[in-house]
Amino acid sequence: MHILVVNDDGPPSNQSSPYVHSFISTLQSAGHTVSVVLPHIQRSWIGKAHIVGQTVKPTYFRPGTLHQDDGTTHRRPLPAKSQAEEWVLVDGTPASCVQIGLYHVFQDRGPVDLVVSGPNYGRNSTAIFSLSSGTVGGAMEAAICGKKAIALSYAFFSRDHDPDIIAGASRLSVKLVEYLYNNWGKDADLYTINVPLVKDVEQHKIMYTRMLQNYWSSGSSFQEILADEGDDADPQEQEKEIRQEGETSLEGLKENKASRHTHKHFKWAPRFADVHQSVEKSAPGNDGWAIKEGYTSVTPLKANFMHASPGLEGELKLIPKIKSLSLYDTEPDKPSKLHILVQYEDPYVQPLILKALKSQLPPSSYTLISSLGELSDPSYPVLQITSYECLAFDHLLSNPTSSLANAYIIRKALIRKHYLSTTVANWITKHPQSVLKDHVKPAVDFELDYAEFLDEALVEAYELKESWTRNESKAEGDREWWILKPGMSDRGQGIRLFSSEFEL
Q: What phi, psi does 330 have (nearest 5°)?
């Protein structure tokens, strides 16, 4: 298998990128062709970014001894005839490494079968870490390029990087990568894997998990510092401090309160206590929980931001505010009061409506009228509360921005027999993208006097007949079932279920 490896930690370094060399060596030992494109420096917390306007330039890294920082970087690649191993470093982001690795270097090795982003120096579990992760961002970039992709992260609990523990994590990772590649989920665009760096990790459980949705809860992720203190700070050293805080400490950072107008800088200093607390409070089954228990977590993902409300589809039309219906903000040439017509013709209901109006609206905000003829201008704001048969629909249709009523204009389309399904079917025909298409079950209406005329009655019931055909080869539990709504001739008794013509 041809595997492209990228990361966000840069080339091998015991200080900032201690796992990538071991993982690549283990992949190669398993017989895979491995192409490597890495950022030339630390690019953590950058997500799936590209740097606009930048011309990305490569250098060439020749790996040295495993766990020894003796690899060398060169401005020019090795000669074409050389057999020595050489990786590509670019002054870009993990996502840029993916693009360059897929389309611009190592082309003589053939198409890439799989992209692995990592192993990251630290966990990428829960939403807080994953949404900012350059490691996950690299895998996302590969996924939207149409490649199978895996984000791989190692969760450490000590900065003592034991070579045996790292080797065990690398062996497990290679086996897991091979398994996922050969058993790829049909709905998965990518996977994110978190491996705990613990002894005998290969003997620990591997769990399919969901990503824990958590949030920053303790305020800003930046620490205020006096301007002089931050001028010469080493970014690499700052990243080391942040990583150590995130993996081993449960304490939040103290806020440095400065006077309001003091010139100051802002140092990235996230409070990882938020993450740890969210994991502690969560139920089992998420990625953060798995790492806490010493398990390896495998989380399938889609390469998009999924809808929080799948039912919201189609066109969104902004309806202008109807000022003329406001009780307190009417147009200058319109009366300031709402006219209300209450004619319910029921000695019990009529007083209740009037009592409700009096309790909910200030008396000065409305005027009761006995007929629409009392309006000096038909466009004045008016509310009709009457029985359905007495509503003045002509007035409603002629003044749609200034009239309200207590019933839909075509009530029968919503409540009578099969009228609702017919109305929905007509609407979907006119608007194929309507949300109703996937949220209202199909319905069939027919008239039948005697059972022997059923075939004739169902001549145009195409959906029903197609359903019966699909059901012929299915077990009873897998069939599509229909509800027979009782008619008045049957005195509305009972609801029948059927899945075949014989049952009907």
A: -90, 165
DSSP H or E segment with residue 60: strand 58-62
Average pLDDT of span 345-357? 89
Amino acid identity, position 414: L
Question: Rounded to whole angstroms, how far apart are CA atoms 358 and 337?
Answer: 14
Tell me: the pLDDT tens digits for 125-157? Answer: 999 999 999 999 999 999 999 999 999 999 998
460 pLDDT tier (thresholds 50, 70, 90): confident
Token pair, residue 459, equals 């001549």
Residue with tokens 């079917």: 425
Q: What would the two tokens of residue 210 be?
A: 């969901």
Paired residues of 46 in beta bridges: none
Centre a 10 Å sphere on the Cβ of residue 117 and count the other Cβ atoms it contains.
32
pLDDT tens-digit profile of 307-323? 565 555 566 656 554 44
- Cα separation, 284 vs 449, whole angstroms: 58
* Cβ atoms of 58 and 90 closer than 8 Å: yes
Does the pLDDT at position 501 exceed 80?
A: yes
Q: Coil, strand, or helix at residue 405?
A: strand
Kindly indicate the confidence band of residue 416, based on its pLDDT and cuts at 50, 70 and 90.
low
Give the orientation angle of helix 163-182 with respect to helix 20-29, to 10 degrees.
60
Q: What does the alpha-carbon distance between residue 107 and residue 362 come to, in Å, rounded to a whole number? A: 77
Question: What does DSSP say about strands 338-343 and 366-369: parallel, antiparallel, or unpaired?
Answer: parallel
Tokens of 314: 């189609």
CB 249 within 8 A of CB 24: no
Query: What is the per-residue burial (b if ≥16 Cβ within 10 Å, else e) of 212-238?
Result: bebeeeeeebebbbeeeeeeeeeeeee
Mean pLDDT, residues 203-213 taken together: 94
Report DSSP state, residue 388.
G
* Rounded distance between C-alpha atoms, residue 335 and residue 339, angstroms: 9
- pTM, two decimals, is 0.60
Q: How far is CA 228 from CA 262, 264, 335, 414, 415, in A?
A: 12, 8, 65, 70, 73
CA dihedral 369, 370, 374, 380 (to 10 degrees): 50
